[in-house]
Amino acid sequence: MRYYISLLFVCFTLLSATVNAAEQKANVLTAQEQQQELNRLKEPMYKPLLERYVLDELKAVRQDQQKLREDVTKQVTHAQLDTADRAITYTTDTINNVFFIITATASILVLVGWNSLRDVKNKVEDIVNTRVSVITDEYEDRLKILEEKLRVRSEEILSNQERISVTNEVHSLWMRANLESDFANKIEIFDEILQRKPEDVEAIAYKADALLEINETAQAIELCNQAIDIDSDYGYAYWQRACAYALTHKHADALADIKMALDYSPNLRNELLHESAFASLHDNESFNTIVAGEPV
């Protein structure tokens, strides 16, 4: 009996030790998993939120565009129906009046001595045909004018709708460009903007800025020249071209463009010492004169 009790006690002791070891291991794994979860929580979570915001904005733009298309179609349809209804009503009233006139005329003719019904009939037919022809021609001209006005108005509405759609798309692309940190992707976004608005000098200048960041200086200068050709008063284009010239050590050209940029955009003066592209000009006397705000 003692043997069995001792054996049972040993088994119970071994089982307790095994359970304690398993619990300790589970606690260790749980602590590691908790640490991993904490590390995950420390990672930035704003990127999915921004992407969600952009998707919501695009969805709202599509919904607004669809609603605008439906409203325009309804307005054009109602206008056409109203015009046709007015024309038919006016024509019916005019024909009724003509028949009243014909009846009165026939009665008068009979009273004054026209005994031949055939003469009366022929005369009435001539009067009716002449009057109806005049009315028909008049309303055909009016309907042509109305159709032309409706066509012009429809083209204006469609053109405005297309401009609104392009504006919304460009706005969404600008938002994407502001959120993008990779300069190659930024350049692709600016290309999409320029496909929709080829003469957008702001997009051209910012594309040139992105090209300078990847050392595509020659292409950046070409884009700045293009922006200046489109709008010679846009100061930021001169600024970007000055950055490109400074990076290629064309200091005279860079200083000339800096002066032009400050003439058109005086607020850029605060960025002179913070622009990394102008590092090679910091020892230049003319540049320091410009920074000091003194006339050159």
TrEMBL record:
Entry annotated with the keyword Cytoplasm: no
Keywords, in A-Z order: Coiled coil, Signal
Coiled-coil boundaries: 19-75
Protein name as catalogued: Tetratricopeptide repeat protein
Leader sequence residues: 1-21
Matching NCBIfam families: TPR_END_plus
Species: Pseudoalteromonas aliena SW19
Domain of life: Bacteria
Record carries keyword Cytoplasm: no
Annotated Gene3D superfamilies: Tetratricopeptide repeat domain
InterPro entries per record: TPR-like_helical_dom_sf (IPR011990), TPR_rpt (IPR019734)
Pfam families to which the protein is assigned, alphabetical: TPR_19
